[in-house]
Amino acid sequence: MNANFVFVLETDKRPLSPCPPARARELLRDGKAAVFRRYPFTIILKRTVPDADPEPCQIKLDPGSKTTGMALVQGEKVIWGGEIAHRGGLIKKQLDRRRASRRLRRSRLRYRAPRFLNRTRAKGWLPPSLQHRVKTTLTWVRRLIRFAPVGELTQELVKFDMQAMQNPEISGVEYQQGELLGFTVKEYLLDKWGRTCAYCGVEHIPLEVEHLHPKSKGGSDRVSNLTLACVKCNRKKGNRPVEDFLAKKPDLLKRLQAKAKAPLKDAAAVNATRWELYRSLEATGLPVTVGTGAQTKFNRKQLGWKKAHWLDAAAVGAVGALTLATEQPLRVTCKGQGGRQKAVLDRNGYPKQHRSLKPIRGWRSGDIASCEGQVGRISPRTTGSFELRPCDGGKPFSRPERTFRSVHRNDGYAYVKMNER
Q1: Structural domain boundaries enclosing 135
Q2: Which residues, at least 6 apart from 218, have a Cβ–Cβ distance to it below 8 Å?
Q3: 213 and 244 in contact (C-beta within 8 Å)?
Q4: How far apart are CA 261 and CA 89, in angstroms?
Q5: Are 313 and 62 in contact, with CB atoms under 8 Å apart?
Q6: How many domains is the chain partitioned into structurally?
């Protein structure tokens, strides 16, 4: 399986054209280069390259609520791919827990006067969980700009809207019942239900929009009443309510009903952050082009690629005869830099222990280290016995501090290649 291309820097840290992994191993073996960074893997040459004129690359982005796809295209080749798993849900959960603890603590301080109407929000303010998605994506864009000769940025920005193109004055019922009636809904359902049949779980076949409560018995066309089903299951269900159809499968019925009533928060998160991300990309000074979701799907099907976030990113915008020079993208999971809260609270909001915010024997929580052939994130302890959580999802284990070898200092992310999951 082809791995990502390796980023190459000149002695003055000027980015050169990325090279294949075999060429990078050759340069390292001959002593002509040294490892500059592990993730993403970057080497730095020990000699200058006269008259180097690298071919410019293009960074392509497919922003998502939970995962953002990234691809680096040079010429007609996709030479690097990555997927960033955001932690917006965890940020919201931690902020809710902090707010509850503060409210409980302040309620005990009877002498403190209540404060209100003392907080203002700037224009364009975004919640921290949404701002995190924008800043994380921008961080990786700037990181790739430092390591590769990037000349253009491309972002999937909006959905395809033929009605607004044909008639800019369209509105009301005429807009709701135009040529694209049902198109956007089905695209959302495909993402929501994982492109599988909700009843039998079959995938990679044509799916139909199915009403959980049939319209012939008063069902509506709301998204919460819609799902996807294969032709066989759709005909077998007929016009029966889902409760009757799945009467002998109560567990499946419970999961299906819970998922159907899930809010549209993922779609709302993308809509709320897409323009902020676009403005942030423009601030880099590089030309920014945009594409539509329908165009991305069309390009991916024309190229014969499977459904993946990083492949969607490579298919954003106008593409020609693109070829995949890599099939092993890097998966990046946002972990954070560690909190500033020194006290660990119990469920009642009382501190139960205190943790050190300083490095322990030169190690910080989240540093990537290797031990006994395993690579993972480390949790240092004052006792000298450190815990390692393997990146491939293996069982954590503890060993003495002297047995660990540093691989990559904590930068707020965990890394794993796709074939290692």
Answers
A1: 57-88+126-161+270-334
A2: none
A3: no
A4: 18
A5: yes
A6: 4
